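Bench log. Compound arrived from synthesis this morning; before running ITC I wanted a structural hypothesis for how iron/sulfur cluster sits in the protein. Inputs:
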Amino acid sequence: MIRHIYVHIPFCARICPYCAFYKDLLDRSQTWRFCEAVLRDLDLQRAHFAISPSTIYFGGGTPTALMTAQLEFLLEGFRRRIDLSSVEEWTMEANPGSVSARKAAVLKKFGVNRISLGVQSWDDELLKLLGREHSAQQAEQSFHLLRAAGFSNINIDLMFSLPGQTIKQWRLTLEKTIALQPEHISAYCLTYEEDTEFFLRHARGEFRQDADMDADFFEMAMSMLEDAGYEHYEISNYARSGFSSVHNRAYWLGKDYLGIGPSAVSTIGMQRWQSVCDYRTYIERALSGKPPRASSENLTREMKRTERIALSLRTRDGVCASDLRHFAQQTNDFIALGLLQKSKDNFVLTRKGKAVADSVAEALL
Ligand code: SF4
């Protein structure tokens, strides 16, 4: 039984120069066909699998770049095709530049109960540098508009270690976010991903990365958000009690999930596959009744174990000790360095360890 679904909507009104997700510029001549293709893809999947999701996550790209009528068409299509009676959490990623009262009302009406709002910063200069289409004021208006539409579970996405960002700017962004009282906050350190404009600028020496600064930004986020009552339940994620993301937790626990849409990955049992990335090819394939699958692989127990370590190490509950039985030496070294600690049957990162989580994970894989 499929319990978790991810749907990828690749359209963006603008392409941010740091973004490595699969996305493309919004082309209104393609979006209706795209929505039809998504529902055909869902039909193809439900011919093979029993689907009764407890979580659905619409990500992108920018799902709210679609028109209100298209979102309605998609959500209604899901409602008609699959049993939604067990849905506990239905998330929609939204960008402040493309949220409207009508869209919010439609999302609410069809059962979306969690919004992830891509704010990134409350500083207009930094937003400009990031190539975002919204201003801080627009982001605030969008947040209030979503609240007015009845959304009582909102995540605000933030980024830190941005080029030129000062610790004071980051503190102001955190203060502003806390003042709005969202239920969930994600705070990501900027990474310079290959094939992005930021990567080239970093390679040319225009932007610099400073591990000490990264650690200071991260430490500030942890301190301020925990003081404000948010639980740090994953390296980049903070939530008020009862509002950690059910969908993301399932993913981190290695549960099966079905991906719909271009570039979406699915993992069911020991099988993993990915849909074609190019959305035009995706549309053609899905509308002609062909599975839009681009590649697939058989997973081994070892691959699953490795993924479990990498993902669960980042969470509050940590890694099951039995998964680390072949790494006794490394585990003891990290404990001696104060980066890891034992908690019941698991190993969890200490506060100091969280700042270097990726390096610890690398040594254990
Ligand atoms: S809006 Fe999001 S998905 Fe689109 S380009 Fe920017 S960061 Fe990437």
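What the model suggests: The chain has 14 helices and 17 strands. The longest helix spans residues 28-46.
ITC booked for Thursday regardless.
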